[in-house]
């Protein structure tokens, strides 16, 4: 959580009105703060302070409470993700089959660590929990594409597919 | 909707099931089933499904193409099954579809070279799936509809007695009678701890309060476990029906399913199923023409392992930080929003309708003395048949690994099986004949857990595995109580010392002491069980820890800091490539003469080994 976000916030008016109208439907539902943050992350791709402030204002709770929830759950991100979101599964089944080496290779090739995004904003890396296709272990995902039974040597070829 | 209408739908739906309704004789209509579980979907089974549909439509064939839930044999996915032959096609691709359509669907010739090899008998005929090693010893109760029905069609669920148990409970039984049956069946919670389900229901029923909740724990966070996901993906109505039965029994009108957001397919199918149940009058007001009203809401998790703990889960449903709280009060008395709440796991619920329909004695006839029924396991790791299996309690680990699981690939030796995830322990080869049930696993220092079963071979280092789980718990500890927050962190530091060869024998004793301290003092189940992976590996693989500590050696060759890279003087031709590659100048030697690695300078990066074209550099 100590990683600083260096990308300036660039939310649009359209995004804000979309968020506010979604929140107006949720705010009277009991216990809907997580759902609100999930919606917000769906609109902005991440949860910068500016977005958390909108949620706090609409829900009538403190920013601290929103921040507390946003930082508790690993799916909420306070930093923007890359255009291509790489996930390397570190679930047990993948780990015993060498996904740790795969992650190291991805980090080495992109020059950033898990939880970070490349300076050009193209790739972000996440070490994910089990995504459930243990039959394909070890598994790596790029956005919605799933690559199974990969080795550290195969990483470069996969990354090469995401050039633009 | 009333009971009579439900029976009419069943009769109509059963006819539509064609050859899948094996106990009936509804003709030889050809049906193609394509697995739509997460494993097969990752292998592009959706494209295979579309390709079948497209070709069947194009050729105007009288063939049904249906997406189902998981067949269990994920290692061989994507899987396609064609009825009435029951031909089991494995590792299908889009390119194979044309051949199956042309040969099998049009001409009736099973395409044998694409079949799962074990289903082809020696004389070239097709063996029924139930006779293969993978399925022979399985007994499917919780998974009975997975791989059989289309989970997005409620009528297919109704065809196989779906919602009949709810109808029976509502019209023929009192709430107390329902609880009596569940108690008598001996069903215990499938989420891990194994608490008797009927008792939990009884406590919730007896709790004072006008408003009560029924919740389902589908926050399957144990890495490498996918039992609950497969049930939700393959048979979501089984969970909905059971929650309705539970709600009737304890007197609730509102249910919540808390499901991991990492399971998009399961969430989608559950949403569809809840929508259809409402449409058919099986959720909502006055269900099946009675006074009983009940509805279900889905709440998505957001990636916090601790939310699988019951009190944390409820706090999370309330939209807060998912921190656990001390018990008592137990959720049965004070749960969601402070009201009495019944919380069961997905697989527990998946057994309920069958128990109501077939009776407590039927269920209690399966399993061992104290653990009744069956258990679903997710087999993963170094095993041939990665996948989902359901076996009666009391099946031995050997049967699961060698007969059903097909053994360890590549001729390697079995070293240990890990059950219970980060809360469980490692079972060594010497205990492979243990009959698996709740109590036997606890007795040997592991636990049933939710059902993840990861197999490890000789290449896995047990200290590294313990460290892997500790890293997981340190990361997932919510930070509320000190023994877990700081204790697991210190424990991980000690383990790291071991893997780096810096630990002393005294450290091993200290580690053990700290483990017992954390177990005794942590607030919730996550912390109390966090030391289990360390304790069980210390118990059964102490010599491996000692090799790290005394000999500064990792016997499995996993712990990087303890590796030694060495140059074989016979194979080295002195090309100098490695010396030029070495980032720290640890390799010395002259052209055309064998080189040498200075172990004091070497940082074990492995760059030299990658560069060597002659295989002269090995790691030990």
Radius of gyration of chain A, taken over Cα atoms and rounded to an integer in Å: 18 Å
Query: From the alpha-carbon coordinates, what is the Rg of chain B to the nearest angstrom?
Result: 27 Å
Write the CATH homologous superfamily of the largest domain in chain B: NADH-ubiquinone oxidoreductase 51kDa subunit
Number of domains of chain B: 5
The low-pLDDT segments of chain A are none
- Beginning-to-end CA distance, first to last residue of chain A: 30 Å
CATH class of the largest domain in chain B: Alpha Beta
- Count of domain modules of chain A: 2
Strands of the biggest beta sheet of chain B: in what spatial order? 10-9-13-11-12
CATH class of the largest domain in chain A, named Alpha Beta
Quaternary structure type:
heterodimer
Query: How many individual helices of chain B?
Result: 26
- The mean pLDDT of chain B is 94
Residues in helix, % of chain A: 40-55%
Per CATH, what is the topology of the largest domain in chain A?
Glutaredoxin
Name of the CATH homologous superfamily of the largest domain in chain A: Glutaredoxin
Shape, per Cα inertia axes of chain B? globular
Name the pair of protein chains with the most residues at their interface, and give those residue counts.
A-B, 35 and 51 residues
Tally of alpha and pi helices of chain A: 7
pLDDT < 50 stretches of chain B: none
Q: What is the fold's blueprint, element by element?
A:
The complex is a heterodimer of chains A (164) and B (620).
Chain A: H1 13-26, H2 33-44, H3 49-59, H4 63-72, E1 84-89, H5 92-96, H6 99-110, E2 123-128, E3 140-142, E4 145-147, H7 155-160
Parallel strand pairs in A: 1-2
Antiparallel strand pairs in A: 1-3, 3-4
Helix pairs in contact in A: 1-2, 1-3, 2-3, 3-4
Chain B: H1 3-16, E1 30-35, H2 38-42, H3 45-58, E2 63-68, E3 80-83, E4 87-89, H4 94-107, H5 133-136, H6 154-159, H7 164-172, H8 175-185, H9 197-206, E5 213-218, H10 227-234, H11 236-250, E6 254-259, H12 264-279, E7 295-300, H13 310-317, E8 341-345, H14 346-358, H15 360-364, E9 374-381, E10 387-392, H16 397-404, E11 414-419, E12 425-428, H17 438-443, E13 452-457, H18 462-476, H19 482-485, H20 487-499, H21 505-521, H22 525-529, H23 532-540, H24 542-550, E14 565-567, H25 577-581, E15 587-588, E16 596-597, H26 607-611, E17 617-619
